[in-house]
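Researcher: Go.
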Amino acid sequence: MRLPLWLLGCSCLTMLSPLAHAAPSMKTASEFQSKAAVSSVSPKQNVTYQIWEDLSRGRSIPVKIYMPSTSAKSPAPVLVFSHGLGGTREAAGYLGEYLSARGYVCIHIQHPGSDSGVWQPVATGGREAILAEMKTAANAANLKFRVGDVTFVLDELEKRNASDPLLGSKLNLSAIGLAGHSFGAGTTLALSGQNYPVGPRTFNFRDSRIKAAVYLSPPVNLRNRQAEEIFGSIEIPGLLMTGTDDVSPIGETTARQRVIPFHGIKAPGQYLVNFQGGDHMIFSGHTTPLRVNSDEKFQHMINKVTGAFLDAYLKGDASQRAWLKNDCGAYLGKAADFQSK
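Model: Structure:
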């Protein structure tokens, strides 16, 4: 099945400079040759790098696993994170570190075909060469690959929870959240239940194992359809974050359009945070020296609100749900417009 490009929204850029995005030792999935299990532990004891082999699709999926820093008495809730176009499993590391300290197992996955391997071969050609490659990679085939990657990771978590040196018996698989930035937010919308009308047919990739979703800078293009038709079938709680300057060199989504999924989703438990002056890069976790202080301020708020949202809907914490409804707006103050329903 082929999906037209407009269904992606394709506003998926998560880097303006390749140097801002790539870790020096980072490899893309295409560079890994071994089919054996690969695991390495970072200097931070609670972070582990692995490559999971999806033999049915012939894809190697790099993952970065953030484990809770303290031993939990019961299985932990899980957050799976999907990076933006041209990104890696290193994306949004600030969020993985914060949530793992809060008791979550966070699995940040890397998507071959729409990861940093897209732009690295042409990096010496400059910005225009990079943008050209990125636009080519923002396609329906890569969305389908990404959906399959997340589905594979969820399947793999079930297997590894049964018997695995790192994850065995440590996962609460009835409390799984999915989050993503840009193309990753589009991936998250797809798996949360976004509709894709194509001619007389409508496609939907909902995965019922996902109980809550976080959309950071989602791509949106209604193509003359109503928001309810595209997003109205999403039934799980959701947190959408964007900014008043949230635009990208790729795609057609404007900053104003990024809030559309919030208004199109009719299920209860929906929250919108629109940061004043926030741009597309505040969510990625990859900053230049000139942005560190401003991005850290945004990321502190992103962490706080995301943690409260996930606690409310994955841990069933009534106090956090009440905080979201009654106090979150005051906490954000003038830094962001906050809405809930």
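Model: Residues 5-340 form a domain with the Rossmann fold fold (CATH 3.40.50.1820).
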